[in-house]
Amino acid sequence: MLFSILVAHYNNFEYFKDFYKSVLNQTYQNFEIIIVDDCSTDDSLQKIKSLTENNKAVKIYKNEINKGVGFTKRKCVELAKGEICGFIDPDDAVVSDALELSIQKYVDHPNIVATYSQIMLCDNLLTPQKIYSRTKRIKNGDQYFFNINNEVSHFFTFRRDFYFKTDGINEELIASEDFDLYLKLYEKGKFEFINSPLYYYRQHSSGVSQNKHRKKTVIESWNKVLFDTCVRRNIHQFGNIKASTDINLAKVLFERENTFRKKLNRYIRKKF
């Protein structure tokens, strides 16, 4: 199976070097690297071209104008050729057997549409700090699964043919585009959990999810994803609360999924 490593890039070269090294060191070598640059304003794209110029597996593209992460990631999938795809942010990295372990899941479970793993939280230098505690095995086929507790996250891989059975990543999203992808694919088939931290997530001040100035935008995008999911699944309300764009759906669903009873049930399942 050809694996397409998908990279949405913008103004990121210094961290890119760690990403690139982690990919080159993969035990599974049948891959391509699709990089789409969203009109970087520094010289990072040229540096990436120079660094990768002798690697035929690397294919670099550039948006005509700055379009945002939703558009850029959607374009990555459209340009890919692999049967299996997976996004890796250019400031992060993966362990050496990340591709191999992911591919093996598709071999062992031919009916699945996606895999995901645990995440290792790292500092600015990509030094491991701790495993992200919320990522865990989920129940497949649940109409009311919204990934509200971040159970599904990186390292996420998916069958490209099933991606095209959805309407694709919402190109208008400037945040939460990954959750948009997860929820759409969840509706198409089974996910398989890899109980090992395959993904190294770098925590740094310039990261989108850690930028306080963009927090409002992230919340708005997340609520958009949740509402669109409700529409697709023909869900109109939760208890006496109507699903709409006028409420904070993320807050409603978080409270619904984190009652004392549901927390206790999750704890029991985890222990026994």
Automatic annotation (TrEMBL):
<dbReference type="GO" id="GO:0016758">
    <property type="term" value="F:hexosyltransferase activity"/>
</dbReference>
<dbReference type="InterPro" id="IPR001173">
    <property type="entry name" value="Glyco_trans_2-like"/>
</dbReference>
<keyword id="KW-0808">Transferase</keyword>
<dbReference type="Pfam" id="PF00535">
    <property type="entry name" value="Glycos_transf_2"/>
</dbReference>
<protein>
    <submittedName>
        <fullName>Glycosyltransferase family 2 protein</fullName>
    </submittedName>
</protein>
<dbReference type="InterPro" id="IPR029044">
    <property type="entry name" value="Nucleotide-diphossugar_trans"/>
</dbReference>
<feature type="domain" description="Glycosyltransferase 2-like">
    <location>
        <begin position="4"/>
        <end position="163"/>
    </location>
</feature>
